Amino acid sequence: MRNVLVTGGAGFIGSNFVQYFLGAHADVVLVNFDNLTYAGNLGNLAAIDADSRYRFVKGDICDRTAVDRAMQEHEIDTVVHFAAESHVDRSITGAAVFVTTNVVGTQVLLEAARAQGVERFLHVSTDEVYGSLGATGKFTELTSLHPNSPYAASKASSDLLVLAYHHTFGLPVVVTRCSNNYGPYQFPEKLIPLMIMNALQDKPLPVYGDGLNVRDWLHVVDHCRAINTVLRTGRVGEVYNIGGNNEWKNIDIVRALLKHLGKPESLIAFVKDRLGHDRRYAIDASKIARELGWAPSYTFERGLAETIDWYLANQPWAKKVMTGEYQEYYRKHYHEG
Ligand code: NAD
Ligand code: TYD
Asked: Fewest CB within 10 angstroms: 187, 290, 309, 319, which?
């Protein structure tokens, strides 16, 4: 593992990973390959911009020529694949780009990685491929895939392609499936940063449906640590679930955020439910714990407090990414104005 290509390194998890990874490994070159969609922001990487081990290549994972060029020029031997369209609500109003980026883009990368002869290809996936749970139980790696949203279906398709490239061509892949992440640099279309930013502006906090949907939250740095662990020591061809045993009802998170910010609960607005809204996610992460010795390091209490403080301290960052396209998206999605 000398020359690592990270796709989607300008997004939320990718930019946290780039910073974490360069901090964890002294002797690597890291190439961030990202085409900077609305969700990609090089400002997330200002802290490591001048690091001589870091390179940025602006490119689309669907563009085989550009991917080949990046892999050859930088003699890539390892791929960590984050690049994706990642927001469920956007996949409901416009699924096509999810299929293009998440499915076709992943297949292009797999072919390029095969031609390059990489020694490891880590595919970053999600627990949403398993579908929705009832009141009890957790997703294990053996749970059958039952994706419900176009986003989840596109990620499940990409997972299957990755595993098929291992089975058919012997490509040395590993797949990780993580639960909901939170932390710094998350785009404010997702639950936690959206609610923080709205509360700071005394805008209504739009809770879908009855607010009783459950998500299993993990701090993004713990996700990055887990990816690093699987990359180095995971068994080829295997899937590893990642999660923090930390289930929360949406409404309870929203209340906790308001409390921390000293804002009134009267800001909560129950709005029309998301179409096909998955009720509950919960990850059984015992395989990665048992086989690779990974465990989360953050308590939710600490992680959430630090995240709120980060958004408070980084309002210029948030305001910058919330201009233009975001305003348009917000107006349309939440039927404002
Ligand atoms: P994000 O939307 O914040 O970032 C996605 C990044 O990919 C952006 O930098 C964007 O510019 C880039 N990108 C998009 N299309 C591209 C293309 N065609 N070519 C090159 N780059 C492209 O996403 P995120 O929340 O950081 O998620 C990263 C990965 O982790 C995704 O694969 C997602 O499915 C997975 N994941 C996310 C979560 C979560 O809670 N956010 C949980 C589990 C897994
Ligand atoms: P989100 O952050 O979009 O992640 P995902 O859908 O991938 O789990 O949403 C997390 C939960 O919060 C989900 O149950 C939907 C809900 N939600 C709201 O209630 N209101 C909102 O404005 C958003 C964006 C999400």
From this structure: 290
Q: Report the percent of the chain where pLDDT is more than 90.
A: 97
CA of 169 to the centre of ligand 1 (A): 26
Over range 194-209, report the average pLDDT. 98
Q: Please identify which of the residues 34, 60, 85, 128 carries the catalytic annotation.
A: 128
Nearest to 30 by CA among 20, 41, 44: 20
Residues recorded for the chain:
337
- Which superfamily is assigned to 3-335 in CATH? NAD(P)-binding Rossmann-like Domain (3.40.50.720)
Residue 4 confidence (pLDDT): 98
In angstroms, rounded to a whole number, what is the distance separating the alpha carbons of residues 85 and 189?
12
Q: Specify the pLDDT at position 335.
A: 82
For the chain, what is the radius of gyration of the CA atoms?
Answer: 19
CA of 11 to the centre of ligand 1 (A): 6
Q: Where are the domains of the chain?
A: 3-335
The 10s digit of each residue's pLDDT in 227-280 is 999 999 999 999 999 999 999 999 999 999 999 999 999 999 999 999 999 999
Q: Which two tokens stand for residue 223?
A: 């996700």
Best probe residue, ligand 1, of 18, 37, 80 (max atoms within 8 Å of C-beta): 37
